[in-house]
Amino acid sequence: MKKIVLLSGATAILTALSIPAFAQTEIATGANVTGVSGVDDNITDIEDAVEDDFDRSADADRFGPSDRRQGLFGNMSLAYTGRTGNVENQDFALAGRIQHNRAPFAQSIGLSIEFGEDDAGNKDKEEVAVIYDAQYYFNDRFYAFALGRFKIDGLVDGLDNADENLRDTEEDDDLRRDGFLGFGPGYRVINTDTTTWRVQAGLGVRYTLTGAQHLNNEGSETELGYIASSRVYHRFNDMIFITNDTDLLSSDEGGEVLANEFGVNFKMSDQLATRISYTTEYQSERAIRTDNTLGVAVVYGF
């Protein structure tokens, strides 16, 4: 996929080469006040979403850890916005990811913290989340994996966010704390230059605390579950490749969740690329158990 960037002047070139890089506040003089910058940001968001879709479909882990960057590396981002005048609010966000790869072991940990206030000065977001991913390769085909996630939503407390003397029954089933840890073996059934297929399965433990449980000082719930995944990649030629991703999560209380995404990727030329995907998600505990999604992404550069 080609990216064409126009840089004007030595200052712009040095800015592009600096790390970390920051987006400019406006694309042209007067763009902010006229709303041009806002529309340009939306265009960038759409472009980033499409590029992320293509990057995920290529399955960076399909050939194992041999091409991974070694050592310790990561990034951290912080954003704060405070507003006064017609509205009085503020937003804070902190996010980061640290990775450490040293063959045959690769692991990463991610953190996100978000706090916000609405126009009345009341909290409208208070979330902290942590994720963990690790893989240990015994050989080119056999490996062990671990997946972890923990999230806290401080606004889910069973009380009305605007008036803490009132109860909010709509938060009774919302999750104040939600954690998951899964681990098990994985195996690369096929691992060639054109076709890869890996499967993995294991045990998972889920920890939850609802708003009602928190308000009533009740205990949390811990449940044993099972996870299984399959990743298939096949390249027909330099122009076309397909992927099929399947994931299953099962537990007594939560039931079964099954998701499958089939994708076809076309590279028509250096300027044109297309991805068509079809996703099916099944949840046994829903009234309408199956959702289907058709996705089409096209990138054209000139």
UniProtKB/TrEMBL annotation:
| Origin: domain of life | Bacteria
Q: Which residues form the signal peptide?
A: 1-23
InterPro entries listed in its UniProt record: DUF481
Q: Report keywords, A-Z.
A: Signal
Mention any Pfam family matching this sequence: DUF481
Mind telling me what this protein is named? DUF481 domain-containing protein
Q: Which organism is it from?
A: Paracoccus onubensis
